[in-house]
Amino acid sequence: MQMIVGLGNPGEKYARTRHNAGFMVVDALAGELGPLVWRERFQALTVKVEMAGKPVLLVKPQTYMNLSGSAVAALLHWYKIELDNLLVIYDDLDLPPGKIRLRTKGGSGGHKGMISIIDLLGTSDFPRLRVGIGRPPVGGEEAVIAWVLGEFAPEERPLMEEAVRRGAAAARAVVEQGLQAAMNLYNR
User: Fold this and answer.
1) Which of 18, 19, 112, 128 is catalytic?
2) Rounded mean pLDDT of 32-38?
């Protein structure tokens, strides 16, 4: 089984914020697969689907971003999923809005959700899909927090809609063709 995790914050208050790019990609992917019934398990919304004849678990942790690792670790353990079959999708300040980047492994880049996952898994050696949200025009931690918890500006929305569409296609390609093939297609 493969597991695709989109990171975000639960609730309507955060639904359209930059920090929910991971949720947006997973929702777009789920939308392509037809009407699905999500259920809550291990502090996450989950749904089992089939892609290219393979079982896939779509996951949206409901623990809030900074505690995402508890849901991810519990689900990996419960379903006995290998780290190579995990794909974590999350927002990234270091990529411009609308860009996506697949990686086989890497650090957290300071992303609190990724820090939580890496800490609880004890490794950073798992695939991820970064969705660019850009940096705020002014620096400082408070500006970054306001930026990631803010909604996309009108001029960013078309870029992000395209990034979400491409992110869903890239996640599907990881399942259907493998990570390396997907990286060759989408890391341009």
Assistant:
1) 19
2) 91
